[in-house]
Amino acid sequence: MYLLRARANCEVYHEKQRICLNICLILYLFPTFSLSNPSKPNFLLILADDLGIGDVGCYGNDTIRTPNLDGLAEEGVRLTQHIAAAAVCTPSRAAFLTGRYPIRSGMASSTQRQVLFWNGCSGGLPPNETTFASILHQQGYFTALVGKWHMGVSCRSRHDYCHHPLNHGFDYFYGMPFTLLNECQGTDDPELAKSLQDTYWLHTHGILLAVLTLLIGKLTNLFSVKWKTIICLAACGLLYFISWFLSYGFTKYWNCILMRNYDITEQPMNLEKTTSNMLKEAVALIERNKHRPFLLFVSLLHVHTPLITTERFQGRSRHGLYGDNVEEMDWMVGMLLDAVEKEGLKNNTLVYFASDHGGFLEARRGNAQLGGWNGIYKGGKGMGGWEGGIRVPGIVRWPGVLPAGTVINELTSLMDIFPTVIDLAGGAVPKDRIIDGHSLLPLLQRKVRDSGHEFMFHYCGVFLHAVRWHQKDSGTIWKAHYTTPVFQPEASGACFGRGICPCFGDGVTHHDPPLLFDLSQDPSEENTLSVHTEPLFNTVIRRIGEAVKEHRKTLTPVPEQLSPYNNIWKPWLQPCCGTFPFCWCDEENKADGIV
Question: Which end of the chain is more exposed for a tag (fewer CB within 10 A), N or C?
Fold first, then answer.
């Protein structure tokens, strides 16, 4: 009996040993399993500024070297019909962050000013808009933005920061709240001042005339008017005049600033150090947050004019300063990818690269071209619905999840990143508003052949310029232009000296019937179709017209963030390091560091 009991105890002991060994083996293997099948991947989203689709090697360029972007495409998925929601910065970026057409959030303009013009203006991404960063923050992600914002700063007071990245879901911000301008470099070719001169001078004259008329009427008793009205109008005129005056000498101090969270660290920015500072910041964020899920949005200042390029890359390319800047941008992308791999995060990180819109054809200095190349596509930055302004590079990599070396020709949008990121993070896409983007994951994994986009609406400000229709039964992609900008392709796209092409007025041409193209056969939009050359012309135009009517039913009135009042400089909103108006500081070397 004793021997039987001893044998039984021995068998129990060995069984416990086997269970313990199995548990240890599972625990040992589990980290490997969790990395190859991550439930919450990290996100590295990289957005270039003004990069043309034809500037990248894997999209057909054989004269500018972009080995890191080309390698990213080889390891991931390359999108060939990736579309921006607008052909200029502010509305396109608003759509990227929210997954919604900019007209839905009020980030589309009804004036000739299509983007935010000041740090010290009251316009910006409304506080009630939901960004992918805000939802990922709720899902436990650390969210950070390094680089360009251009979505506004404050609403009513200098320190309410209602439009600031930290009020839109980002835990950390380091970069420019505005965008690069020629004035930031102090060149002889002012960018903002030139654009503002005619508008502000015209408005100032108009307001002055109105004030004089009311004043004469008041003093001569020709009509009744309150002194308060005259004083308010005069104050507006003075503000316009000050804005116009300051746009010449003070733009560098008002707009070209660097911030860490809510604190200004450089005013004005030291452009010689900007590239290295932002790259170091982004790499350090990856290193310090490798043990928790993170979303890092690197919003590059490259390749926007004035093409800030370090000495190491100057003179290296065959395309002057612009080509040098593209190659430096590619190097920066490589450094970010190296940081991800160094920390062992490559297989657990979805990397996305795109441009906010097409290359800037009008950007020139003398005979030198400072803007990008949009390949075979017509038009460029600011040119409404032409392909060159809205078709951008789009590359997505996630090793082990997305098939390497894949090319997808389906319709996709920058707005698709919003639902894609949220779905992968385990969040829920908001149900209280219309989301125009579609999750890309099924398409990227080749589980479906269709992106879900049947129609895309191409706005210039609040004006609908063109519509794209993917006719599913035939696979044909039609595009109808209701309005096109007046420009001269032979003059590098110049809109008759206007700078960025206008969205309305005498700078555009209206088409009735619309210009129709078959992008499936004619991506360069060279051959306009008609009832004589296309049997389906009337059917296609009618179907697109019906889609426009249905789309417009989904639009609701919202405050226009780029209205003249919201887009004028307001002294009480101007971010200032020091005592206003003596705004100057250099706190970079004294910064506390990175969270």
Answer: N
Catalytic residue among 82, 89, 137, 155: 89
pLDDT of the residue at 590: 62
Q: Are residues 214 and 362 in the same domain?
A: no
Percent above pLDDT 70 for the chain: 85
Examine the domain organization and report whether 331 and 427 are in the same domain.
yes
Q: Are residues 210 and 279 in the same domain?
A: no
DSSP single-letter state for residue 580: T
Give kind and range of the element (H or E) at residue 244: helix 227-249
349-365 pLDDT tens trace: 999 999 999 999 888 87
User: What residue spans of 289-438 are helical by DSSP H?
Assistant: 320-342, 387-390, 417-424
| pLDDT at 12 (0 to 100) | 45
**What stretch of H or E contains 479?**
strand 476-485
The active-site residue out of 82, 121, 137, 150 is: 150
Shared domain check, 150 and 211: no
In a domain, 20, yes or no: no
Tell me the CA end-to-end span of the chain in Å, nearest whole number. Answer: 67
Residue with tokens 């740090």, as numbered in its chain: 119
Q: What is the mean pLDDT of residues 446-452?
A: 90
Q: Is 451 helix (H, G, I), strand (E, B) or coil?
A: coil
150 noted as active-site residue: yes
The yes-or-no answer on residue 164 being catalytic is: no
Return the structure tokens found at 480: 């109808």
